[in-house]
Amino acid sequence: MIPAADDRAALSDLVVLSDLVVRYAHQVDHRRFADLGELFTADAELVLPDPPRNLEPVRRLAGRTEIVAAMGGLDGLVATRHALHGQVVEVGEDPDSAIGSVVGEAHHLLNRPDGVVQDCVWFLRYEDRYQRGDGRWRFARRRLTIDWIEYRDLGQVRGGPERTAHR
């Protein structure tokens, strides 16, 4: 959707949907999983890959409770950092639904047994379906595909989620 410059409602929707995508990354990176759950509709679906075996989405999580519980698996990492590169949104005939595509990177810092921290970088894309209800846009479905994975040895790393979490 490329709204006209004077279409304030459409421009507002684009800003809010962009914010929704950024908030998802922010909540994951700061381990605010309960807040993350609120970004999804009650019956939302999150479809995830199982790297490194499967880079295509194979695992389906249904509803906020399953989505939030699955995110707890990230607690074993030193930190995560999402970098979003672009988003395209299309609003359909129903003004309360939209689809979108997001590309970016997700850095996962892992402690190796030898003490070196490794950055496991997912070059990813999300295919999203958004739904507006109660005046708020949320994810109705989010499907993550990893295009490729790159591993980088970082040595010793200062910081981690406890340094970046908002309290």
Describe the structure.
This protein has helices at residues 8-29, 33-37, 63-71, 161-164; strands at 40-50, 54-62, 79-91, 97-111, 117-133, 136-155. By secondary structure, the protein is an alpha+beta fold. It has a single domain, classed as Nuclear Transport Factor 2, Chain: A. A hairpin with a 2-residue loop joins strand 5 (117-133) and strand 6 (136-155). The longest helix has 22 residues, at 8-29. The chain is elongated, with a radius of gyration of 17 Å.
Write down the CATH topology.
Nuclear Transport Factor 2, Chain: A
SS-based class:
alpha+beta
Largest sheet: number of strands, sense, barrel closure: 6 strands, mixed
Distance between the termini: 37 Å
Given as residue ranges, the uncertain stretches (5+ residues, pLDDT < 50) are 161-167
Q: State the shape.
A: elongated
CATH architecture assignment: Roll
Fraction of residues in H or I helices: 10-25%
As for the number of domains, it is: 1
Strand order of the largest sheet: 2-1-6-5-4-3
Q: What pattern of helices and strands is seen along the backbone?
A: HHEEHEEEEH
By DSSP (H or I, 4+ residues per run), the number of helices equals 4
Strand content: over 45%
Q: What would the average pLDDT be, to the nearest integer?
A: 88
| CATH classification, class level | Alpha Beta
